[in-house]
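Hey team,

Filing this mostly as a record. A colleague (T.K.) asked me to run one chain through the structure pipeline before their review meeting, and I want the input and output archived in the tracker in case anyone asks later how it was produced. No errors, nothing strange. Just documentation.

Input sequence:
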Amino acid sequence: MAGPESHESLEYTPTWVVAAVCTIIVVISLLVERFLHYLGKFLKHNQQDALYKALQKLKEELMLLGFISLLLTVFQRTISRICVSRRLFHHMLPCKENSFPSNQEVHRAKGLKLQLTWNNRKLLSEDEGSDICMRQGKVPLLTLEALHQLHIFIFVLAVVHVVFCATTMVLGGAKIRKWKLWENDIRKGLPKKETLSAEELSTHVQQHREFVMEHTAGLQQRSVVLNWIMSFLKQFYASVTKSDYRALRSGFIMRHCSSNPDFDFHKYMLRTLEDDFKIVVGIRWYLWLFVVLFLLLNVNGWHTFFWLSFLPLVLLLAVGTKLEHIITCLAQEAAEKPTDGQVPEVKPSDHHFWFNQPGILLYLIHFILFQNAFELAYFFWIISTYGFYSCIMEKVGYIVPRLLVGVIIQVLCSYSTLPLYTIVTQMGDMFKQAIFDEQLRSTLHGWAETIRKRKKPKTVGVSSFMKMINSNSKTAVSGGRIQMQNTTSEADGSSEVAERPIALE
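Output structure:
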């Protein structure tokens, strides 16, 4: 005879219920899939290749999370039938042992909802795995209910990660787009001729000295400690000023494309941000290692959840301070070199960055954003699964600071630190390779088409022209970045030298 709970299986569930639930799930899944598909087509149509690759990376991460959830579903009965000694469940508990009802000692892994007693709980507690372990005098490694709660956690983590990535891109892009006015103003003020008049030269020198004076005036230049303190404070109220932007732009152009002062530095930075976004949206193996370590150390009385919430804040402040200090160092170096009447120019160099690697800062920002997303995802999961007054949530005095710190980290990192990183890391020795690949291909194709249309006897063939460009185009590639060298091309018996990178128009 069927047990009292047998009617809960699909065998005794109305077909219209099964069909309705499946329809809703399939429709929602198809809508999300179509949305991502058309979003990708929109990005490709608008030639947003970096964002398109970031979207593909995001799809990969969502697929990975879905695969993890699928594995939990497929092996849930196998996992629930793994029995372990009761003594192992007396150590490293997220809640105090006396917070469980007395009859729940054998089944403490079946969930931690304190507002429900053992006699009234039925969700999936009477599963076959629990019965097998009880007959052996043991407890299941994970019950079906605990696995179900892990499914919810994976879903919440995926949603929060996507939302935070979108927020980061929107806020960071909005801050950088504000600099477009500075870019337009600077390009309008550029001299139309190579020889500067006395007034134009005086204005040019004054603008660069303004940048130097902002960072070297007073005791700031004399005291190293005060220098770092000012760098720490500056990231909160004026991370990048117009004089900073002008000087860094000038230093970048003088280092990499001195023959093209009209280079669109702002558009270059936007494409750099889009390219870096591909890294930010990903979840690398060491981030999963951090998740596992956090779940392991979330022991009652250790307040791991509370203390780890301050780790991304400390790292964020350290990164922001370092970036501001790099700008100050560039200003101090510029102040030491020029003599009277000379322009104090910024000299980009990798030695200002930690271990001479500007890319390290991006990985730190990536870790900061992911850990913050994980912290808040874990918080929302606890509320939705166990309630606000769960023992895992701890006291209200621990909850409010965590939420406040999480919001501060997200806003500060997205709107201040990430844009600051985008402009300061251009002060390294190299270009970023991925920014120019598409531009180089499209430009070479345009040159080849121009030669084909000429149809002159002396004009070199398209294939010969492409070979000539490839042989004379010298690039120095290092660590995923590229520095353009002089490009010499000879066509129709003439020789011309192009020393500028492809203009981002």
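Quick notes for T.K.: Residues 1-6, 99-126, 458-505 have pLDDT under 50 and may be disordered. Residues 156-429 form one domain.
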